[in-house]
Amino acid sequence: MKCLVAVLVCAVLAEGIVKIPLQKHKSMREALREKGIELPYQDPALKYQPNEFAGSAYMYINNYADTTYYGAISIGTPPQSFQVLFDTGSANLWVDSIYCNTQACNAHKKFDPRQSSTYSAKGQSFYLPYGAGSLYGTFGYDTVQVGDIVINNQEIGLSTNEPGQNFVVAKFDGILGLSYPYISAGGETPVMDNMISQNLLGANIFAFYLSRGGQQGSVLSFGGVDNSLYKGEIYWTPVTSESYWQIGVQGFEINGQETGWCSRGCQSIVDTGTSTLTAPSQLLPYIMQAIGAQQSQYGMYMVDCSQINNLPTLSFVISGVALQLPPSAYITQNGYQSCSVGITPTYLPSRDGEPLWIFGDVFLREYYSVYDRTNNRVGFASAA
């Protein structure tokens, strides 16, 4: 299912409280100012009142070509740092390890459990298939740090074999799954569930702000949201299946005209680990016809770049609210007069036969998304 080609900065955060290093060595305030976001001044002495900040972490994550959003975590004692894809479409945490010598593993940093005084082996192996790429591994336990949140005895997967080429060019050393434990391979307890059970969060939520145009400035937060990163209000919709972050879709509109395709209900999985908007395969030809896209010899749907402003706006009706995707969201300019449509098909059935969509990064760049485990709901607000 997963493509795998595939910010929150707290408004009350003093400089230096939580900072994930960026390639460009700018302060959080400077980086956000370039995006037109001005943080209010806060007294730096507030950091000496830890209760004011307990239970939340705000961290920059990297944007690679609008296809992959990843950031740093650390594992072990002393900590070993890794770049991981933050993925709401899977549940396991795994990293490359010294037990793996395939080309994909050798291209990345590897976790060495021998160098960690807090590591313990579980003695259980696993297999994880993704839409593109798969791996074998073994489970263990160790301390994991995400932002400034430290999780004790977190189950982690250590890769032992990553066949094929899919992970060779990946910008990340592993994946941190953020979906429900129901879909966790091997029954591994997800990171978010351990944060909850260890009472590490002020609120049992996390949120994403995804930058666009390959620019940096994406943010992932745990335990809180940042009002400066979205406009208007957050619209909430209930999770319909506590496995993926799956929600109901009541309507699909093209230029404000209801198509009727979801009149009997559609489902959608909200998935930061999928780079495109994924449509039910039976609906894709009609969408491309409405867009006026032509299929290339490589199977991609293309449009004339000069016509982008004339293309339709797509809208999803979710809990009574129409969330719009303008053509600027779903069209990517690949080069001079070469523009592709960031919508791909899925052939997976949904529950009760309702057509299944995947709201990947194409959708999520338009909307600040909030994932609420206490109330089992997803929130969307227009991204700032």
Describe this entry's structure for a reader.
Strand 17 (294-295) and strand 18 (301-303) form a beta hairpin. The strands form 3 sheets. This protein has a 6-stranded mixed β-barrel with strand order 2-3-8-4-7-6. It has a 4-stranded antiparallel β-sheet with strand order 14-13-19-20. Strands 17-18-22-21 form a 4-stranded antiparallel β-sheet. The protein has helices at 28-34, 103-106, 191-197, 284-291, 327-330, 361-364; strands spanning 57-64, 68-75, 80-87, 93-95, 120-129, 134-146, 149-161, 174-177, 205-209, 218-222, 230-242, 245-249, 251-254, 257-258, 266-270, 277-280, 294-295, 301-303, 314-318, 321-325, 331-335, 338-341, 343-346, 356-359, 367-372, 377-383. With 384 residues, the protein is mainly β. The chain folds into 2 domains: 28-225, Acid Proteases (Cathepsin D, subunit A, domain 1); 230-383, Acid Proteases (Cathepsin D, subunit A, domain 1). The model is unreliable at 1-29 and 36-54 (pLDDT under 50). Helix content is 9%, strand content 40%. It is globular.
Supply the number of structural domains: 2
**Relative strand content:** 35-45%
Strand order, main sheet: write it out.
2-3-8-4-7-6
Tell me how many strands there are. Answer: 26
Q: Average pLDDT, to the nearest integer?
A: 87
Question: Based on helices, strands and strand pairing, what is the structural class?
Answer: mainly beta
Main pleated-sheet profile: 6 strands, mixed, barrel
Q: How large is the count of helical segments?
A: 6
The outline comes out as globular
Evaluate the radius of gyration: 21 Å
